[in-house]
Amino acid sequence: MVRKILHFDLDAFYCAVEEQRHGELKGAPFAVGGRPESRGVVASCSYAARRFGIRSAMGMAQAVRLCPQLRILPPDMRAYGEMSGRVMEILHRITPQVEQLSIDEAFLDVTELDEYATVLARQLQAEVEDFLGLPSSLGAATNKLVAKIATDVGKAAVQTDDYPRAIQVVPPGREAEFLAPLPVDALWGVGPRTRARLAGIGIRKVADVLGAQPEELARQFGKLGHDLRRQAQGLDQRPVVTEREAKSISQETTFAQDVDDTETLRRALRQQATEVGVRLRRNSLAARTVTVKLRWADFSTRTRQTTVSQPLDDEEEIARIAMDLLTALRPGGRAVRLIGVGCSGLVAAVRQMSIFDLPADAEAQAKEAQLNEAVQMLRKRFGADAIKRGSEL
């Protein structure tokens, strides 16, 4: 059976949520991210801001130079996490085979459904906008690789100052033809350094990969050379993996400029811990191990992890452990290029709401569990901003 894979991507998700909360932002140049004076980075920007050349992952100071009237909003990860959860609920109405990649992106395997991929993509796009007011773009193909690239190509092809709302479908058997004219860095694993090395041997487009000798690619790039050739043919057999089947749930941030400010790194960890916690609870999962990942300016990477006695799903506890791991990983205050938080050792969550007949330390844990449950209930009913912990103020 030929597979039908959809790649779903919310258009400028953070900005779309902020426009709902602040109607005056509609059509205005604004960005969500850190302050320019603290080496903040653009997490997302409106399409009006993009007309000035502003892009995600750009330093906020540079963004303000490009657009002095740029309005800057701090990210509200709780609000985005709550809205993301509602979006994922809609995706799961289409099929249980949903692999969430991040807060605003997912793969869906719709092979078993009778409708054409184009019909399903339009249905999903319409439902998310009709029910939640959020614009999205989709790519459809026979595998994850081509579906993801199709989304990017579709969005780039839309010439508008508004959200692209693109749908790009690659018919079965046309994968290599679709990929051939694209720049080689459209393929996964090709960053600036690999792109420069490929250009050095005459490979600038995906078609050039197929024109190169396989032995030369293998000699120059090892396993990546083999992978690039398969990608250029449009081949990808990876299944869509639901979060309940996944071995871990994680979130990472790559900074446009290396960050040495500890408070900025701690804020990034807290935002990531929030998203990971939301995704754990949405899937009724808990984790035994918390891992922090750091990548330095020289691209070397270090990780450190902690395994807890009782599986957890609370973002406050995930964040607390992550802060300790950050301190242990970075004793000298070294500048960081990438930071990430992950939870592994996933098990079905078991909630304990009674504090009776428990030892003293367990009583404290149960009270914390009750508090977390009450907070989540209030936020679900009244919105993400209904209640906040003092540490968030």
Q: What's the multimeric state?
A: single chain
Residue windows where pLDDT falls under 50 for at least 5 positions: 352-362
Strand content: 15-25%
What spatial order of strands do you see in the largest sheet?
Answer: 5-6-1-7-8
Distance between the termini: 53 Å
Shape: globular
Pattern of helices and strands: EHEEHHEHEEHEHEHHHHHEHEEHEH
Q: What's the tally of helices?
A: 14
Instruction: Profile the largest sheet.
Output: 5 strands, mixed
Helix content: 40-55%
Mean pLDDT: 88
How big is the Rg? 22 Å
Tally of strands:
12
Structural class: alpha+beta
Structural features, described:
This protein has 393 residues and is α+β, with helices and mostly antiparallel strands. It has helices at residues 13-21, 47-50, 60-66, 77-94, 117-132, 144-157, 175-179, 192-200, 206-211, 214-221, 223-232, 262-282, 315-329, 360-382, and strands at 5-10, 30-33, 42-45, 71-73, 98-102, 105-109, 136-141, 167-169, 248-259, 285-296, 301-312, 336-348. The strands form 3 sheets. The protein has a 5-stranded mixed sheet with strand order 5-6-1-7-8. α4 crosses α5 (117-132), α4 (77-94) packs parallel to α12 and α10 crosses α11. The model is unreliable at 352-362 (pLDDT under 50).
